[in-house]
Amino acid sequence: xxxxxxxxxxxxxxxxxxxxxxxxxxxxxxxxxxxxxxxxxxxxxxxxxxxxxxxxxxxxxxxxxxxxxxxxxxxxxxxxxxxxxxxxxxxxxxxxxxxxxxxxxxxxxxxxxxxxxxxxxxxxxxxxxxxxxxxxxxxxxxxxxxxxxxxxxxxxxxxxxxxxxxxxxxxxxxxxxxxxxxxxxxxxxxxxxxxxxxxxxxxxxxxxxxxxxxxxxxxxxxxxxxxxxxxxxxxxxxxxxxxxxxxxxxxxxxxxxxxxxxxxxxxxxxxxxxxxxxxxxxxxxxxxxxxxxxxxxxxxxxxxxxxxxxxxxxxxxxxxxxxxxxxxxxxxxxxxxxxxxxxxxxxxxxxxxxxxxxxxxxxxxxxxxxxxxxxxxxxxxxxxxxxxxxxxxxxxxxxxxxxxxxxxxxxxxxxxxxxxxxxxxxxxxxxxxxxxxxxxxxxxxxxxxxxxxxxxxxxxxxxxxxxxxxxxxxxxxxxxxxxxxxxxxxxxxxxxxxxxxxxxxxxxxx
Length: 510
Hints:
Layout: H1 2-14, E1 30-31, H2 40-56, H3 64-72, E2 76-77, E3 83-84, H4 87-96, E4 100-104, E5 111-115, E6 118-121, E7 129-131, E8 138-140, H5 143-154, E9 162-163, H6 174-188, E10 193-195, H7 200-214, H8 219-222, E11 226-230, H9 241-252, E12 257-261, E13 264-265, H10 273-294, E14 300-304, E15 307-310, E16 315-316, H11 321-336, E17 342-344, H12 355-370, E18 375-377, E19 382-383, E20 388-389, H13 391-409, H14 415-418, H15 420-428, H16 437-441, H17 458-463, H18 469-483, H19 491-500
Parallel strand pairs: 6-18, 7-20, 9-10, 10-11, 11-12, 12-14, 13-15, 17-18
Antiparallel strand pairs: 1-6, 2-3, 4-5, 7-8, 15-16, 19-20
């Protein structure tokens, strides 16, 4: 009887109001960095190799502005028309770079603080397909998917930053894509967020739209809530012209930047993982140097996203063990330099939210988080090696992220948690810990519980309908899309934005 009573008491305690965020078992920004795939000497060797690449090979296809900035600071253009970066110049950029910064919640003074060993989970991606939640078939992604993925992420506690996951393929021009994607993302969540840009002139238009949303000119610069994902390089070691132009405008607009290098080992970067890592670091350091010559201390993330290939076919393999350890090492390298870090993990090769997706995502995200990545991008929703996104996968992955964040937290060893007195109480008393005051007090502060994952006995699971986790996640998706309409964007701001810009998303429900 006492055993049943203890179980009932525990369940009652679990149903009580949630604890304040900082008292829960996990929260955004927990300290990572315990997993170190590289030794200190190996980090030094990778860094030295990256400096050598920039000094001896430099970057091709530099924009006129970047050429002028770097050559005025001691660099030069070589006989191959490549922009060379002296070691000292790159090291000066590292010294002057922002070591931490805040990406705000919409209209708030607080937000996500990036830097140090703080770990956060983010979506991301430029998927061109959605695994439709009604038909369970792939279809082209659309603007409404940008909004719906943002709305869903707005309700998922363990997704700390929402970066647009899909491309709005129903938009006819790059301007419509850039402006409407930024609007749909902003309207869908008040969380810190991210988007990307095709053309430099769109950067200032979107910044102006954000000012309207926040209530006045200069408000976005004062409390930026968006990070610009900028893949400014075409590996190996060349600038991507339009993205590099966008990079300069993002600095001028006061937008935090994720400096992205996404070489693919065996294709656009070396098959040797160390070489792929060194190349990615060199490319990101080139971007960091140019940004800091434009504006010292501008907020940037070192977005080393080294991808790998299945060398049998040449296809990208986002869910491989090589990808997992490589991105963990990328996080370690950024932390080694004391710079904010962002890596890509969770890019399952599976086409469904199944066992394959689960082990691929769990392995990669766990290593990246425990390596201390400030932002683990692609951590929820992505399938088919980044070609597709699934709403059900986002919900399931949210459970995964909570569990992984618990591994980042680790185990606190104190006189209280060693529990000698508690053990004595139980040995001399009830003989079990179910109803003990320590058990009840720690149910939410020590443990993380899944929202859609099932822990019932087989018999109880059958009695409850024998539903799979995908079935439960689908129900959550349908309910959220029907009921959750974020209200942080005021009707007045929405109207002004629609009068100023060609917004194709239907008017928001209130």
